[in-house]
């Protein structure tokens, strides 16, 4: 069972990265090349506009920043879900789904830590793989709801956006 799950996750992350395309040749401002191809371009521009790596064309510095933003949002989402679960929840389906989300974001936090560790050692394909797994965990959390709770939606979108970007960039580094 576990072997099948990991094989499925590996395949899913590979497909996600392949479907996202390759990192364009950077000409000038990195954001002009990266953000239009992201899940939520305005969020990408908003969060990265003031990053010092951007005007210098420093793709490694940008990846480091993106991984940190993804980590911060994943940790915040985990804490939010945990705080929601401490409150009384009348609907047993919502409570069960929030419990699943807590597990998803716990795993996502671990995956991002591993992704960052791989990045620091230059293992960019593994950085990409583990960042893709974070996207999978966030999407899995959201799929359990008929409508994603309003307090969860912006954080989960940020997790997906910046984990996706880190996967795309890392997949194309040598």
Uncertain ranges: 1-26
| Sheet/helix structural class | mainly alpha
Number of strands: 0
Rg, alpha carbons: 16 Å
**Overall mean pLDDT:** 82
Please tally the helical runs, counting DSSP H or I stretches of 4 or more residues: 7
Helix-residue proportion: over 70%
In whole angstroms, the N-to-C terminal distance is: 34 Å
Biggest sheet layout: none
Helix and strand layout, with pairings?
Blueprint: H1 2-19, H2 30-34, H3 41-48, H4 59-86, H5 92-121, H6 124-143, H7 153-171
Helix pairs in contact: 1-6, 4-5, 4-7, 5-6, 6-7
Structure commentary:
This protein has 174 residues and is mainly α. 74% of the residues lie in helices and 0% in strands. Helix 4 (59-86) packs antiparallel against helix 5 (92-121), helix 4 (59-86) packs antiparallel against helix 7 (153-171) and helix 6 runs antiparallel to helix 7. The longest helix has 30 residues, at 92-121. The model is unreliable at 1-26 (pLDDT under 50). Belongs to the PMEI family. Residues 1-28 form the signal peptide.
Summarize the structure.
This protein is mostly helical.
Features:
about 170 residues; mainly alpha; Pectinesterase_inhib_dom; disulfide bond; pectinesterase inhibitor activity; Invertase/methylesterase_inhib; signal
